[in-house]
Amino acid sequence: MKKLLIAAMLLVLAVLYVGYYEALEEGDIETILFIKKHPTVQMKFYNIHANDGEIRRVERLTEEERKWIIDYCRYRLGIDTALETQDDVEICRKK
Fold first, then answer.
1. Residue, of 41 and 53, whose pLDDT is higher
2. pLDDT tens-place string over residues 61-92
């Protein structure tokens, strides 16, 4: 019973603190794991810069893309941003 409780706690911690995104690396899609800066049940994230060679202009982002970048910045990088300027997009570009 004790082992089951410990396993359940580890699983909950993994869900809350481990995330991933997929990136195109050398022609293959790779899953990149990371430790989240803030706990959330969201596990899959989208790094818009990982698969896109061009720099995305903030004024051309859809609301969905904007949310993806904001979530990625907050949970992967620990950066809270409203994503209002191009500099905000560039700050979230680092891996």
1. 41
2. 899 989 999 999 999 999 999 988 988 888 88
Residue of 31, 16, 22 whose CA lies nearest to 75: 16
Q: Phi-psi region for residue 78, left (φ > 0), alpha (ψ -120 to 50) or beta?
A: left
Q: What is the value of pTM for the model shown?
A: 0.84
- What pLDDT shows up at residue 53? 59
Domain around 69: 2-91
**Domains contained in the chain, number:** 1
Q: Which long-range contacts (CB under 8 A, 24 or more apart) does 58-64 make?
A: 58/83, 58/84, 58/85, 58/86, 58/88, 58/89, 61/89
Q: Give the separation between CA 77 and CA 74, rounded to whole angstroms.
A: 6
